[in-house]
Amino acid sequence: MSKVCAPVRDEKIRELNQKTDVIEIFKGIMEILQLMRLDLANFTITMMRPNIVASSIEYEKAKFAEFLKVNTNGLQFTEKWLLRHYDPTKITSNSSDINAVRQLTHCLLTEAYLDLLEWDFNPDAETLMLDQGRLLELRDKTSRLSIIGSIILLVNNTVGAPIHGVSSFKKNIKQHLNVLLDSVHSNKDLETVMPNIVLQVKTDLETTLQEIGSTLLSIEMESLLEGQILDLINPGHKIRHLINLRIRQFLQKIILSQSAAPQQVPPGLSSLQEELTAIVAQFLILISHNRSVFGEYYQEIITNALIKKETENNKDTSAIHTMDL
């Protein structure tokens, strides 16, 4: 068995070799055989994954093409979503320049993808229907992470030196706030749980200050901190907006990057590096697959938008010439 099982099972094999009871040995053999079956299944899936992904892309393409045959205006919401950041007055690309169209599509699509992680945005585009559930889950995770980051930054700025560098405080507050925010899916939900969040922050802060032997916060300082945290309910709050912007720019930089080199986590988000990295990994997988399936449609939408702009410009030019004559 030691020669055919995966290396990860070597420890189990060694434990089995040390047993002397026949029943325990037989039981151990059966357990290892079950694990080996699982390892074989995982190995097979890993080996077949590229083929499965490639097949799923072609399958989704074919099914969506069938959908468009039945629905002539089947990209209505996709077009609205993709062109949300399209400003004809700032675009200099020409529809006949394929490379320019591709680059413009890439940039606009990146912004459109990032919009999906905002609480006030729903993935209702036709090309996002299959991934809607996973996108909503990532949206909630990202928004909650932004709230946690904002609270940690507020606490650090308000309390100051006593808790700087105390990793246990950040770890505990992240765990506790994640639990409290688990049921939050909108800003309205956030408003409901915010009083509990304030209580939890005050409790964690008091516990940490006691552990490190520091002076507890005064009543005035507690009231100040409580008010600042409650103000985070406002989506336009400066610190909340700042954290949101840094997360968005971090994701944008990774998506637009042509290099596989790791990107540095933005200032103020180092305590959330693990969670942010997990979100980035999931998000990149989703949008990469989406782009592979629907990339042609996205490029066609951008091309049509450019053609429309060029046609309107030509009409304006013709009208000016006519007036001159």
UniProtKB/TrEMBL annotation:
<dbReference type="Pfam" id="PF05794">
    <property type="entry name" value="Tcp11"/>
</dbReference>
<dbReference type="GO" id="GO:0007165">
    <property type="term" value="P:signal transduction"/>
</dbReference>
<protein>
    <submittedName>
        <fullName>T-complex protein 11-like protein 2</fullName>
    </submittedName>
</protein>
<dbReference type="InterPro" id="IPR008862">
    <property type="entry name" value="Tcp11"/>
</dbReference>
<comment type="similarity">
    <text>Belongs to the TCP11 family.</text>
</comment>
